[in-house]
Amino acid sequence: MPAFDSAIFDGTAFDSGGASGPPPAVPVGTGSLTASLAVTVGSGLVFNRAIGGLRWAVRVMVGGVDISARLMDVIRISGREDEARIASFSVRPVSSAQLLSLDAQPVTIDIILQRGSATSTIRRFTGQVESVEFNSARRIATVDCRDAWQEIFKACQTAESVESLFGGLAKISPLALPWNAAKPDAGAYFSGLLATIPGATAIDSRGIWHAFPWQTASPAAIFAEGDVMSDSVKIRRASRRDLPKSINVRLSHRFHRLHNISVPLQWSAPTYLENIDRGLELVPKSTVISAIDGIADWYVQGKATIEQHTPGLYQIPYQATLVDYMIDYTMAQTTIKSLAGWMYRRWYQEVDASYTASIDVGGLSERSADVSASIASDFDADAWERPSSAENSLGLYVANVPAPPAGPTGYEALPAPWPPFNSSVDHYGSAADIDLADAFSHVLAKGLRQASAGRRSQTVSFSRVLDPRWEIGDVLGISAYGVAATGQISEFDETLDMDSGEATTEITLACPDGNAQTTSFTVGFSPILAVEEKTITHAPLTNHYGAASDTVYIPPGADLDVSGLFVNVSGVSSWYLSSAPIFNQQFRVVMPEIPAIWRDPITPEKAFSPTFNIAGSGITVVF
Amino acid sequence: MALTFKLFIDPALTTPLAAPLSFFVEAGSAGHCDAVVYLGTPVPGRILQTEINPGVDDILVSVTGSGAVAANQIKLATSSAGLDAATGGTDLNLGPILSATTPVHIRVTEDADTVGEVVLSITTSALAEYLNV
């Protein structure tokens, strides 16, 4: 029976008199959100020249005050892709107080059009007073205004805020373009991302931020000869400066290739018979262990298997008799009979990989432009390469380990990552393959934007009677005076002369030669990988007897290829030969050298052939 | 205490919408004029719910007013593509809890020949802002 019987308590047993659960949260703010929508249903007839002359008026509100009645001279409004929209006007202030009150005030400019009985009111500017210059003789203040294009991205406090301004068009790469949270620079981050978008940004007439793609679409209007001023239609071809022959894109990536190689350790001490026959001593365990531990850069994988002698009295057949061979307990504990295990070495190799692509821009010049970025791994390869000082072949315990480790791998004292056995792995630190792909896409996007912007410097511009309906990025067409083109508005300039009544809108359409409806690219990225199985030869551990009639002479230079026990026979042994080479007695382990191809810095390169699309339908000219 | 959630002119929530949002449509053109504002807060760790039945009732955005353009000529959606399918004059449902920036796309359509100017409004439900704990 369970200790707690829930059946004893009914649903009200713990009722403290109120609703269960945590107390309701207290709101930190309440209210409703409201926005006013100023909707003008205007007559499109005001843009129809056939009806008659156009009359216009301007309503300028500064800081909520209508100053329209005191406007003078010329009002100018202009906009460009990736720039703040600017406006300027002249006003005769009613007082010095009004003059001084203009600074930094919010400004809206509405244009009121009337043609015949048709009227339309269109907002054309929403911004702020930037500067005021007062001509005291004429008592006229010239007011320059700007929208919030710069302020918006400079006010961003986080990377996410800046990124949101591009509406998903930017190619974000924390590797190629990192956001420094400790010292945020929203302006630099914005500029870096802007360079990757296949489109542009602008604030519209109503003060709303836009990021729009470069694309072709059905034009909202096509202007014929009757709609544009006869001498205003101009074609500008892309200049050699704007249009290189190609743009070479390169992402340089410095990282570490982590290598691992292992060689077997196999050695057996001379047999008891050899010890008797050649007059040898048992080999001290410490001699072998210190030799192994003293090899620079090589380490024993796990723990080497060291076989001790078994204490006892052995009778060894020697020269037709049995010779007693005594091994006492102390001797058995301090000497070695055989050794088995693996030694390994791991090291890193610096890799400066390059990922490249080329964009054929089609320029007539031989010049190529370069777009590049460099990224580097944050991995501490030096720390990885060395084991901790606790790593050695002997270990603390011989037996009865208090808490034996589970599943020892032999690398416990070393930091990850572990290259595969006798192989290598390319390690990017905290970055993953997808981060690398993002970085390459980032630099490709920069190249594509540069190529596309170069082609978009082919434009058609024209002027028409004041037509403030259009925004940066809108698609218009023209078919007039032998020129036929469709393109996005990349800039406009409006001039309204209060004295003469002349009012014009000059529109510039970007009309690049293109191959698609949307500017984009596709690439299948895969990183450079060179994980190869490698083997390495090494000298086996054998026993070499000096001062003996069978001593093998090791010539100079060959001593790098011999390993094992070097010991001299006893002077009373039948093998003794005083003229034979006599060794410095030692246990010697010579490990193989690492070939340069696995050690020296390398600079592999991988070229990609992305598909690039540049939106545009070009310009047709008929003479 | 006032809400830190506001309607902004940019998705980075740096500049609150101040002036009336202007729309121009040509009478009888069957055209439309779009705009987008962003509902959110620059203050991290806040959520928005309805003041009544918080977390249960949906936050609604509705259009009020009439004139040369009726409320049913205003479409609301959370995406530009959503405007095509939206029904004019219908409230925009933002769900019971808002924690992230939400775009509010507005489309003024013109299906009559009445020329004129009118000031309409979009208004949310009565809202309450909470710490997101």
Task: Give a description of the structure.
The complex is a heterodimer of chains A (623) and B (133). Chain A is mainly β and 623 residues long. Chain A has a domain at 44-147. Helices cover 12% and strands 37% of the residues of chain A. Chain A has 9 helices and 32 strands. In chain A, strands 3, 4, 5, 6, 7, 8, 9, 12, 13, 22, 23, 24, 25 and 32 form a 14-stranded mixed sheet that branches. The N and C termini of chain A lie far apart (103 Å). Chain B is elongated, with a radius of gyration of 15 Å. Chain B has one helix spanning 80-85, and strands at residues 6-8, 21-26, 32-40, 46-50, 60-64, 74-77, 92-93, 97-98, 102-109, 116-124, 127-131. Chain B is mainly beta and 133 residues long. Chain B is built from 1 helix and 11 strands. The chains are: A mainly beta (623), B mainly beta (133). Chains A and B meet through strand 1, strand 2, strand 7, strand 8 and helix 2 of A and strand 2, strand 3, strand 10 and strand 11 of B.
Low-confidence blocks of residues of chain A: 1-19
> Sheet with the most strands of chain A?
14 strands, mixed
* Mean residue pLDDT of chain A: 89
Output the strand order for the largest sheet of chain B: 1-3-9-6
* Uncertain stretches of chain B: none
Strand content of chain B: 35-45%
Helix content of chain A: 10-25%
**Strand segment tally of chain A:** 32
Radius of gyration of chain A: 42 Å
Provide the helix percentage of chain B.
Answer: under 10%
Oligomeric description of these chains: heterodimer
How many domains of chain B? The number is 1
Distance between the termini of chain B: 19 Å
Residue share in β-strands of chain A: 35-45%
**Helix/strand structural class of chain B:** mainly beta
Which chains have the largest interface?
Answer: A-B, 49 and 64 residues
Radius of gyration of chain B: 15 Å
- How many beta-strand segments of chain B? 11
